[in-house]
Amino acid sequence: MWNEKMAARAKCREIDPDALFVQGAAQNRAKLICRGCPVRTQCLAEALDSRIEFGVWGGMTERERRALLRRRKDVTSWYDLLTSAEKRYEEERSQEEPVRNAPVVVAGH
């Protein structure tokens, strides 16, 4: 769950918090702040589990979060779901890396 340690690692800790509580097209700019944040998944999970109604959290607007909550009423813990999905993704990605970075062998050379 969200804690002080995670908050200290968040990219948004260095900006004006009001930048994440905007309307309209400004929300798309606010979502960019979350890109590449090391605690983005946990932040989004906190917003979903706590039903936070306002602001951009974990790269999603309140409207996007409400739609997700309506579609996935079966989820009892967004933290568990999202962090386990992130872990699986990272594991799959690490298994693919050696193949992707392998030297290219050209026949006849």
UniProtKB/TrEMBL annotation:
GO terms for biological process: cell redox homeostasis; negative regulation of DNA-templated transcription. The Fe-S cluster can be nitrosylated by nitric oxide (NO). Upon Fe-S cluster removal intramolecular disulfide bonds are formed. InterPro entries: 4FE4S_WBL, Whib. [4Fe-4S] cluster binds at residues 12, 34, 37, 43. Its cofactor is [4Fe-4S] cluster. It is found in: Cytoplasm. Residues 90-99 have a biased composition (Basic and acidic residues). Residues 90-109 are annotated as: Disordered. Keywords: 4Fe-4S, Cytoplasm, Disulfide bond, DNA-binding, Iron, Iron-sulfur, Metal-binding, Transcription, Transcription regulation. One of its GO terms (molecular function) is metal ion binding. Residues 11-67 form the 4Fe-4S Wbl-type domain. The keyword Transcription regulation applies. The keyword Iron applies. Binds 1 [4Fe-4S] cluster per subunit. Following nitrosylation of the [4Fe-4S] cluster binds 1 [4Fe-8(NO)] cluster per subunit. GO terms for cellular component: cytoplasm. Pfam families: Whib (PF02467). Belongs to the WhiB family. Acts as a transcriptional regulator. Probably redox-responsive. The apo- but not holo-form probably binds DNA. HAMAP family: WhiB (MF_01479). PANTHER family: TRANSCRIPTIONAL REGULATOR WHIB4, TRANSCRIPTIONAL REGULATOR WHID-RELATED. This is Transcriptional regulator WhiB.
